[in-house]
Structures are given as C-alpha cells and as structure tokens.
UniProtKB/TrEMBL annotation:
This is Pyruvate/2-oxoglutarate/acetoin dehydrogenase complex, dehydrogenase (E1) component. Pfam families: E1_dh (PF00676), Transket_pyr (PF02779), Transketolase_C (PF02780). Keywords: Oxidoreductase, Pyruvate, Thiamine pyrophosphate. It comes from Epilithonimonas pallida. Residues 476-650 form the Transketolase-like pyrimidine-binding domain.
Amino acid sequence: MQSTYIETQQISFQDFKNSILDDYRLGRISREMSYLGRREVLTGKAKFGIFGDGKELPQLAMAKVFRNGDFRSGYYRDQTFALAIDAVSVESFFAQLYADTSVEREPASAGRQMNGHYATRSLNADGSWKDLTAQKNISSDISPTAGQMPRLLGLAQASKIYKSVKFEGSEKFSKDGNEVAFGTIGDASTAEGHFWETLNAACALQVPMIVSIWDDGYGISVPTQNQRAKADISEMLSGFQRNEGENQGCEIIQVKAWDYPALMEAYAKAEHFARYESVPVVIHVTEVTQPQGHSTSGSHERYKSEDRLSWESEFDGLIKFREWILDYSIEIEGQEEVLATAEELDSIDSEAKKLVKEGQKKAWEAYQKTISDLKSDVLPLVESIKNQNFEIGNLIETFNKIISVSKKDVFQLIRKTLLLTRNQDSAERNILKSKYEEILKIEKDNYSSHLYSESEWKATNVKEIKPIFSDSSEEVDGRVVVRNNFDKIFEKYPQSLVFGEDTGNIGDVNQGLEGLQEKYGDVRIADTGIREATILGQGIGMAMRGLKPIAEIQYLDYILYCLQGMSDDLATVQYRTKGGQKAPVIIRTRGHRLEGVWHSGSPMAGILNLSKGINILVPRNLTKAAGFYNTMLQSDEPAVIVECLNGYRLKEKQPDNLGEFTVPVGKIEVTKEGTDVTLVTYGSTWRIVTEAANELEKLGISAEVIDVQSLIPFDLSHEIAESVKKTNRLVIIDEDVEGGTSAFILQQILEKQKAFRYLDSDPLTISAENHRPAYASDGDYFSKPSADDIVEKVYQLFNELNPEKYPAIY
C-alpha cells in the first residue's frame, strides 16, 4: 500500500508540537462548549441540548484528512469536527442553541434546527452555487437515526461520476472526482436498515466514502448487545471486508476513541483507501465516552453502572490525550524535547473556558438584542392606546413581569391589544397595526420562507413552451415519446443522469429508456440493486453536488420505501438551511390504474402530506410527462413525476420540439369545456373521467373536465374556481382512498379558492375503495372509480336537482 499522509509528512518538532497543542486546545474548547451548553439549557435559556462531548479526538482526526471539496453527511454530535473545519464558531454554536434566526449569526439553519445540526452554505444569496471545491462542505444534518446514510451514498458517488462527466461549470463541484464523502453515525443506529442498505450499495459501487461509527456502548439507555445480532459491529461487518484483487467490499478499521496517535493513523489509512483507490471504509471508533449522557432530557446515571461511569471518567478522551502529551518526550540532537508541561496545559484549559464563556455571552447578547429591539418598538405603541381599553393596562403589567421575554410574548401582546381595540379607529391604533404587519412579515421570513426555492430558477419561473405538432408529427407509443425526449435531455444536459432498477441495460421495464445506455454509457444510464431508499439517496447526494440526477423508483407503490428520506431529508433541504443548500433531484416513477395489491396503489395523500417542499406532478400521458422533465431540469427544486403505466402502449402524437417544450407546474388544463358540472381529476383517471363526461353529454349533462396536472403546487391561478363559478357544481374524482388526495383537492378549491360561494349543490368526491385494488381488470373496475361510477354519481346530483328531467336510475 502507498504510504499514508502521516507517514509522508516531514515537519519540524516545533510544528509537530504546535499541531498537537492546537488539537488539544480545540478539544478543550469543544468540551467547554458542551459543558456550558448543558448549563444554558438547564437554566432555561435554551430549550434542548445534545452535545458532542467524548467524541473530540476522533473528530479531530477526521478533520485532519478532510479537504476542500469533501462532504460530510452526519448526525448531531460532530461539533468538534465542525469547529476544526471552521464550519461553526463558539458564537454560532450558541446562536443555534438559542434558536437565533439570523443567518449571519447562525448560518447552519438560521434557528430552524435544534443544536448540533451543522451545515455549510452551498449557495449564494441569490440561490446560485458557490465554488464547492474551494470550501469544506457539510450537507445539512438531520435527526432521524441513520437517515443521513442514503444521502451519503450519493455524495460519494458524485465523485466517481465527475471522473468521467464534465460540463460547463463542473469545476465548481469537483476536481476530477478526487473528493471523499464522510459519514458519521452512532453505533446503535447501525441497527437501522438505512445503514445496511447504504453500506451494501457503497461496497457494490466502490465509491469514495468513509463512515465513522461512534461506539459508546449504548443506544440512549439500551446496551449494544440488545441492538444487533453481534455486539461488535466490526465483527458483524467482517463479511463486507474486501478481498485482495476484488472490486467489491470495504475496508474496516477499528480504533479506540481515546488513542490519539492511533486515530491519526486510522484516518490517514482510511483517506488513502477512499481518495486514491475509491474504496469505501468503515472506521469503528470504540470505547467512546459520553460525559454528560445522551441529552439534556435525562441523566445517564440512571442506566449506567458505577463501574461503567468510573471507567468513562478514567478513559475520557481529553484526559487520555492530556496524559499522552505529558508522557511524550523525544531526544533531538542530544536534548530531550517535550510537548507541554502540566502548567501549560492548565493554561490552555483556562483559556478555553474563558473563550467559550465570552463567545456564549456575545451570542446571548446578540440574540437578546433582536428581542429587546422588537420590544422597544412595540411596547410604546401599545402603551399609547392603553386608554382605549382598561384591559390593555393589565396586559402591559403582565408583560412587564416576564423575566425572559421572547418574540412570542411581544406578538401576543400586540395581537391581544389589537383584538381588544377592534372597535376603535384611532391614529395610534393604526400605527400599531402597521407595525404588526411590518414585524409579522419579518417573522414569516424567519420561520416560513424557503420551503421551495426563492431563486430565479424556481419551478414556477420556468416559462411554458408548448409542444409543436406538424403534418409530419408521428403517432407513436407513449413510451417512444418519453424515450426520445430523454434522448434529447441527455444530449442537452451532460450533467444529467438516470439510475434505478432495470433502468440501464434493458432501458427500464417499459422501454422508456430503450437504447440510451448504449448511447450515453453506463455511468449516466445506470442499473441499481433493489434498494429504493438508497436510490433516492443517490439522487439527493448527487443533486447537492451540482449534477442533475433522475432517480427512478420502478413503481409508485415502491416509493413508500423512500418516503422517510423524501419527508425528513429532501423536502426540507431548502427550508432547514433557509436557502443555504438545495437538492434538485427528479424522482421518476410510474403508477395508477394498475393490477394487484402491490402494483396498483395510489398513495398520493401520504406523499402530499409528508413531502411539502417537493413538487408533486401527475401527468395524464407521456407527452405531458416529457414536458415536466423538461421543466424540472431547468429548475433548482426537487420533483416527483408519476408517469401513467397504462399509457406506454397508447398512441400519442410526438411533438417536433422534443427536449424543448415544457409543462408549467401549478397550472391546470381544461381538456373538455362544459356548463353544468366541473369534474376535477389527474393522472390515468383522466381517461376514465373523459369517457364518463362523454356519456353524461348523452344524458343531457354538460361536464367540464379539468386535469389538475400538478398537485404541488396546486392551481396557482385559481382557474378551477372560475370553472365552478360557471357550472356551480364540483365533483372530484381520484383513485386514492376516500379522504385522501380528493380531500386535499377539495380543501384547496373550497378554502383557498373560495369556490364554495358558487356552489348550488354539495361538492362530491368519488374515490377508490379503502382497500388496496384487487388483481386484474375486474379488480380495477370494482376497486377504483369506473366510468360507470362517475356517470351514475354525477347523474344523481342532477336527479336531486330535477327528478323529472333526470329520473332515478335505480
């Protein structure tokens, strides 16, 4: 094996000494942050605390081999690492603890995440990409145990992609694919499926990934032996160890958390394997201590024995590091040299404590100034109208007794005052009302902005380009339209790629990618294993590194495997970083009107409710689907595009401007005009509804058919309300279960669009049965709304209106 980084360093003893003492100083600063952070929570100045004490040394070692352009995907105990790469300061650490909403003071999340969730800012203020190769990168942390792992796979695989893929601007994302993705995870969390799926995929793909497992012997209070089949994760992973000469598997390194020189050597070896051989590495860091327990919510004394607590005190990493420094001596030119004396280390300890206290004080004062300025703006305005209602004086008195005022207290004061003076129309009240509107706008931005992109590349800014048809436009199978459009996409966007089960060699199960792997290669048109969660993770990680990935989930039912990652990670990326990061991955899937319990589901309500932050697009045919791909590839937002499985063999006219035409998100289409009733639907059910509408015409009922097209965002121009205004009747047809997507659509139309004002009849929803669909065409007919169901139920509306003109059918 090639020499490691440490073995090849030629430095003077003084430089070596300075490096060691710098590490000790940083470790002590981090530990003091943990200690003081806990006290801030227990004294009521912060809500919750979870800290990285005990993990200082391995994180210092990891930081040594973390280069510009590298990425970390981790969980919430890596403060020492974040300090070491300048991703967090003492001040920003405490700003996050206090939930300071200033991006400048708390750049990781602007107060949106609880402490310990780190992130670097990948984007400029306008949403454009920074040069990620010029900085050390942390993809925004999430709390769900092992939830960070699938994304890690994509971050690592991007380096492998960049070894062969180049495009204009790619130099901002990678330097010839030499970056490593680092992951961190608690030992107990390795019991989660996401860990195993990710490691399995990494070993198959051979991506440059280093996973650090912090093993403190517990999962909160549950001992390791109760977490997995083997207490020792290294032993359990032994089958993953790569064999010499094989291109599969990983390297496994075990090292103790308190052994500073061994940690340095372990991470140097790991970096070599990952960066220079593109081999995934697991570093199992054992004998980790947790001096303050799991979090501020409890005490580890409740579940750890006296012997264990005593051992943890003795083998605390910083104590062992101090012992190692004091024991170290070397003879240079006949003179004994030491690293430091006890007095010098005591001085570093004192300096660290002072530095942390000063940083905490600055963070607290800056956070409090925001609130005190708000209070100073509002209180005099409230006092100016206290004579208009005697209860306002009581409100002010109660407010002034609050020891630690929060924004909530200020807003409650102003809102209650406005409520009490609702019958007044004084100049003073109008000033207070204006102030309320002004500060509310600020806090809306602080707490509710950036669920979706706010840049010039947001999906709703993509201009509509209609498909062009001519006399020479061919009638082809729907699959041919989407395939030929993909061909144009991969030619137009060299940074685009697609991957999934059966996606590459056979061109997907419905031949929507037929022949494209042969044309564009197996890096860009790739097969994967059967592992939906990490297919999504590949997409998230790649998108965070500037690629345009299309992650294919073979069937809509299977997207349930991805829902945790979609909800907890992808949907919240822009929000939880307040526009600091983005992951514009497209999730390609197919579904609706299928056959069989697990191949015909329509779990749209779950997707809608759990994936706010992702565009949910439901085209009625493959031409519309192609247009949505063209739209989203110009956007910097993620999307789910559900292709109609029963449309691949149906004939469609192929547009002449493949790869160019777009379908706007958030816009409905009226596909049949009518005057008596508005029928709203989407996806494959549109064909059933259109058939029913034609039957209703024969019965004397003129039905207007609306294809929603885009569930999120939904009908931004409120065109459906205009249709209801004309027809005065509304029917929503959906193949989801009752109370599912149809309830969402109903809420949007009645509440958001205020269409209830135009109704002459109760709104009607026609949905599927509440069970999964039974097999075969008959199963579909009796499980989901049929044209017969729609005709009869819509006809019943008119029977109730005019039974003579529309006599009962049954």
